[in-house]
Amino acid sequence: MRMRFEGLEEIERAVKEVDFAELMGRDQSFGVEAERYGDHPFTSVDVASAVGRAVIESCLASEGWRPRVDLKSPDVQLYALVRDDEFLLGINLTGPSLHKRFYRVADVRSTLPPTLAFLMVLRSGWEPSGCLLDPFCGSGTIPIEAALYAMSVPPNAYRPREQMPVFRLRFLDQHVIERVLERLRSSERRWLRPCVYGTDVSPRALEAARRNVASAGLEDVVRIEKADALNLEKWKGIGELPETVHVVTDPPFGIRMGLSDPYGFYSKAFSSIRRAIRNPKLVAIFSKQVVARRALEDSGWTITGLRKVKYGHLETVLISAEA
């Protein structure tokens, strides 16, 4: 459902017109999650309450039974969004947000969202036949997303079923869902062995990365090794890399990450990367565009592209460059 509205009462009346008895069984529970953006005389809790009342009244009116409410783990979870004067209502099919991957068992501070890591891999132009390196790999998100992409592994096809509400929706043909899931898994290229490396200088990050790689079943695909990005040419594995390498990375930014001199840090790191790799192609994310661009250009890189992206509450930029 999608509509424009003037007041909360209008939302409740419209929701009441939907026959929710067709969407859930008498023995099933439902819940409403609501979010609100904009200036309104009501809260998101008010929205959830209004939608919940309307669902109950809809079932009573059409079938004469009252659905059970479960706010923690409902069989049917409705999602209500109010954005200024727009209202949207839908059914949660996936459970937790799709950016929460099945393999994430360990994190480090300021871990990159997997969806953003995947975007960076795509933007880099890397092909599975080439080599990809993340010299600031942290918990291994970028290398793992790259390997899963190369091997055509759909990350969320491996979520536990109890986390996926779509398997509890009786109005959907579960046999169709099973066939789709089977088709997705049968298209995987698990035999492929792409060239994917992740390096970091932090023992804690390396431990987290290796745990996540193992959780993803990629121990024999993604290589996680200790190396200092400020002196990458000293890494013992550098001689194994081909002439052209796609460097996709999330370098630290901000004092919170111990970075008191971003320009100096970026200059030293990307000068080292340029010296270590003969033909590097870079995609990196930064919070300080001007500083990052100046450091890259002063280090001998040519900026080839910019793209602004949201990183949590931060306004960041993806910078593409070649050296």
Give descriptors for this structure.
alpha/beta, VC0802-like, Rossmann fold, 2 domains, 5-stranded mixed sheet
Can you describe this structure?
The protein is α/β, with parallel strands linked by helices and 323 residues long. It has two domains: 2-91, VC0802-like (2-Layer Sandwich), CATH 3.30.2130; 114-322, Vaccinia Virus protein VP39 (Rossmann fold, 3-Layer(aba) Sandwich). It is built from eight helices and twelve strands. It has helices at 8-16, 44-62, 114-124, 141-150, 174-186, 203-215, 262-276, 289-298, and strands at residues 2-4, 29-37, 68-69, 76-83, 86-91, 131-134, 195-200, 222-226, 244-249, 279-286, 302-311, 314-322. The strands form two sheets. Strands 8-7-6-9-10-12-11 form a seven-stranded mixed beta sheet. A five-stranded mixed beta sheet has the order 1-5-4-2-3. Strand 4 and strand 5 (86-91) form a beta hairpin. Helix 1 runs parallel beside helix 2 (44-62) and helix 7 (262-276) packs across helix 8. The longest helix has 19 residues, at 44-62. It is elongated, with a radius of gyration of 24 Å. The termini are far apart. The model has no long low-confidence stretch (mean pLDDT 93).
What is the general shape?
elongated
- The helix/strand class is alpha/beta
What string gives the helices and strands in order?
EHEHEEEHEHHEHEEHEHEE
For the biggest β-sheet, the strand order reads 8-7-6-9-10-12-11
The biggest beta sheet is recorded as: 7 strands, mixed
CATH topology title of the largest domain: Rossmann fold
